[in-house]
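Suppose a colleague, Dr. K., hands you the sequence of a protein chain of 264 amino acids and asks what its three-dimensional shape might be. Before reaching for any lab equipment, you can write down a predicted structure in C-alpha cell form. Begin with the sequence itself:
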Amino acid sequence: MVALLYGKLKKEQSLLLSASWKTLLFAFLLSFGISFISGILLINVFGISPEAIYQVSSKRISSVFPLIETGVKAGIDPGLLIFLWNALGALATISFIYTAAFFDPRKISLFPRGLRKMFCGRTRMKIFCFLPGCRAIADESLRRLYVWLMVPLLGMILLGVETGLSVSTSTFLFDSAALAFFSLLPHGIIEIPSFALAGAVSFSAHRVMQGEIPDSETGEVFTRIETYRKELPLTVISFTVLLSLLAAGLIEARLTGRIMDFLT
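The predicted structure, expressed as C-alpha cells, is then:
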C-alpha cells in the first residue's frame, strides 16, 4: 500500500509529503520526550500524584470511553470502535486541505456563504501571531490560511504531550518504565505514523504556502494550494491511513492487553 502511495506521487509531492511527515513525527517525539520528563519531575520533585497527572493527560480522550463501553455492550468489536474514533480524527485532519478554500476572499459569495464569511473574517487574528512566520504575513486571509494548515503540527504536539504524560504516570502505576512504554508500543508504532501521514497532507500544503507567500499575490497563493490539493492522490492516502488505523485499533483491543498481562 505504501509503495502504491508513493507510486502515485510526483517527485515534488513526494518530497513535500515525506518532509512534512517526518516533521510531524519529530514534533510528536520531541513533545513526548519533554512531557515524559516533565511528568517524572512533577511526581518526584513536586510530589504531584500520578493519578492527578493521568486525569489531566487523558481528559480529552476519556470523553470517548463511555461511547466505546456502550458499543461493546451492544456487541461491537472494541477494535472497530477504536478504529472508528481514530478514523474520524484522521479524516478530519485530512479535510483541512479541502476547507482551506473557505479562506479565499475571492469566493466568499459561494456556498456555504455563511461559513466562508466566518472563515475569512476581517479582524486581525492576533491570538495566533506568536506562531513562527505568522506575524510577517500582511494579508489577513493568508494569515488565517497559514495557521489553519499548521493545525496538524499543533495537533501532533498536543498528542505527544498527552502521551508523554500518560506514559510517565504509567511508569509509577506499573512501577516499571518498560511496562509503561509497552502499553503504548504495539499499537502506537502504527497509529502515530498514520496520524502523522494524515496531518502531512495539510501540513505539506502549509510548506507550499510558505514558498509562495514572498513572491505571490493573495489569489495566486490560494490557486497554488488548490492546484496542489488536486494533484495529491488523496483517495490512496486516506485509504492507507484508514487501513493502518484499522490494524492499530485491532492490535490495541486484542493484543496490547495480552502483552501487558504476560509481562505483568
